[in-house]
Specification:
Blueprint lengths: L25 H16 L4 E3 L9 E4 L11 E11 L3 E6 L9 E6 L2 E6 L5 E6 L1 H14 L10 H20 L3
Antiparallel strand pairs: 1-2, 2-3, 3-6, 4-5, 6-7
This protein binds nickel (II) ion.
The site of nickel (II) ion has 5 residues, from helix 2.
């Protein structure tokens, strides 16, 4: 297993659409495991392959609290096949937009079809934080970030701050 570097917005690679996985083979399983390790180390509750520079439809999610046992989901080609009409708002963050948060409204519940780490077709009925997290990660596969759901004004403030932060890091002596 290996820790993968996480891309920070604004980065054009985070705005691209990811390609479907043809088969969950050893390479994809390795990617899933590396992504899980990277997510836990960050720490975060979800990570999508484009965030580590891989344009393939793979996400990992674990919304278990610190005192609960891990509930890792490794998903290839996840697809939302049903969304509730009821909406829910969460204050979302993202490992690619560190230290920035915003309220985002999404369907409160959803049903997702995906391939698990063994290539089995599975369906998940997600509610609460899991529903939000899975939708947030699937958004990444379309090149959509949580800031794309908020006003352009708020989005630009966040992206400009991140851009400045990146520039200041580049200027730091190694
Ligand atoms: Ni994210």
């Amino acid at each position: 297993m290996a820790l993968l570097p996480i891309l920070v917005a604004p980065d054009p690679r985070l705005k691209l659409k990811a390609k479907p996985v043809a088969a969950v083979d050893a390479r994809i399983r390795r990617l899933m495991d590396d992504m899980a390790e990277t997510m836990y180390a960050a720490p975060g509750i979800g990570l999508a392959a484009p965030q580590v520079g891989v344009l393939e439809r793979v996400i990992v999610v674990d919304v278990a609290k610190d005192d609960e046992k891990p509930q890792l989901l490794r998903m290839a080609n996840p697809e939302v096949i049903w969304r509730s009409e009821t909406l829910a708002t969460y204050n979302e963050g993202c490992l690619s937009l560190p230290e920035h948060y915003a309220d985002v409204e999404r369907p409160a519940e959803c049903r997702v079809r995906y391939l698990d780490h063994e290539g089995e077709i599975r369906e998940l009925h997600a509610t609460g934080l899991l529903s939000t997290c899975v939708q947030h990660e699937i958004d990444h596969l379309e090149g959509t970030l949580f800031v794309d759901h908020i006003s352009a004004l708020k989005r630009n403030i966040i992206l400009r701050k991140l851009q400045k932060l990146k520039k200041s890091k580049e200027l730091e002596p190694a």
